[in-house]
Amino acid sequence: MAETSISRLSATHAAGRPTPQTRQVLGTWQAKFLLLALIGGSSFLFMKVGLRAYSPVQVSSFRMLIGAATLLALLHLSGGRLPRTLRTWMHMSVCGALLAALPFLLFAGAAEKVSSALNGVGSATAPLFAVLFGLMLLPDVRPAPHKLIAVLAGFAGVVCIMQPWQSVGRPDPVGFGMSLGASVCWALGWAYYCRYLQGADVGGLSFSAALLMVGSVIMLAALLAWWLLSLDTHDTPWQAREDATGSAVLESFLAVLVLSLIGTGLAYALQFDVVRDAGPTVGATITYLVPVVSVGLGVAVLGERIAWPQIIGAAVGIGAAAVIIGPPPRKRRPVERRDPMKPPNNNGGTIT
Q1: Which segments of 226-318 are extended strands (E)?
Q2: How far apart are CA 183 and CA 155, in angstroms?
Q3: What is the pLDDT of residue 325?
């Protein structure tokens, strides 16, 4: 879901009006906006529950495969089509790894080591990395100075979350590092897409479906490799952990199913609709609503707790993201001074 946080870069390079394939999947963009924020934030909760019986590789693989099947079905029903050129699919293989396979796997791995609340906070750092990769890969992207300052402030917030001055009580550095790594992948993937695939998106679900298809191939290979290394504990790639109870397996299966159908398939189907209908600035603001939902659900449902340095760091990071993806400051128009000896004309100006 943080894909949406970098979609501003994508929309900056996109051209043309929505095609008939970009018709709304659900209602107005306002409804889709709120739905995406809820879906993105709750995905970290469902990942946490899914890991009670399955490994991170299994959760991310099942999520990718079922999500891709869902989008392909929606693409067929909407009358859309997949990209057809070899060049597009070659670049799509890179995007599939950076925008789907790697983030899903890293977020699932992070969920084993940090709370779902902090995992969601990590996803909000994507705009910070987007600025850096945009500078490297997109020559025409030149952020304003106040946004570069926001990047530095955002990384200061990340340091505050990590609490390097603490020896105990801080987040697991490997786990939170995985969450940050997923955000790095998203940022780099969107910058790569803007550089090499800006003219290939035919609209609608084409890009999203192709993205998950490529990600599914990658994750299927990863799942088979993991299974070959786990033959002593898993007879099949879809087998749950041996120590998982029947109720835990059922809860995990339902969580992964919801994560796949809604948190992946439906979310990808709605993602670009918001940007196309409401503009990149509005669409990108989902980035800092996602951790609000993830923290709220983590505390309310899983009983998670966040230390005050992490709350401060999260607030700084989310605020920095809001500045980065926000519109540039308006320039004040010069006020025309009127000669008091001259009467105003009908338009409120002066008679010259």
Answers
A1: none
A2: 13
A3: 63
What's the gap between Cα 109 and its chain centre? 16
pLDDT digit string (tens) for 284-330?
556 667 777 888 888 888 888 777 777 787 787 777 767 766 665 56
Q: Please give the average per-residue pLDDT across 237-260, as a whole number.
A: 93
% of the chain residues with pLDDT over 90:
32
Query: What local confidence, expressed as pLDDT, does residue 250 receive?
Result: 95
CB 212 within 8 A of CB 100: yes
Q: Which residue has the tokens 């087998």?
A: 239
Question: Rounded to an integer, what distance in angstroms lies between the CA atom of residue 178 and that of residue 118?
Answer: 11
CA max distance for the chain = 95
Would residue 290 count as lying in a domain?
A: yes
Q: How confident is the model at residue 20 (pLDDT cuts 50, 70, 90)?
A: very low
Residue 63's domain spans which residues? 2-12+31-325
What is the DSSP code string of 261-273?
IIIIIIHHHHHHH
| C-alpha closest to that of 47 among 59, 62, 64, 35 | 59
Name the residue with tokens 């490994």: 55
Q: Is 68 within a domain?
A: yes
Helix axes 56-77, 102-111, angle to 10 degrees: 140
CA distance 225 to 168: 35
- In a domain? residue 334: no
CA distances from 161 to 129, 158, 216, 307, 311 (A): 17, 5, 33, 9, 8
Q: How many domains does the chain have?
A: 1
Average pLDDT, the chain: 78
188 closest CA partner among 86, 98, 68, 293: 98
- Residue 249's pLDDT band, with cuts at 50, 70 and 90, is very high
Torsion (CA) 96, 97, 98, 102 in degrees, nearest 10: 130
Both tokens of 276, joined, read: 């196309």
339 occurs within a structural domain: no
What's the pLDDT score for residue 169? 66
Q: Which two tokens stand for residue 71?
A: 């989008």
pTM over 0.85: no
Encoded tokens for 142: 């030149």
pLDDT at 2: 44
**Paired tokens of 13:** 């390079």
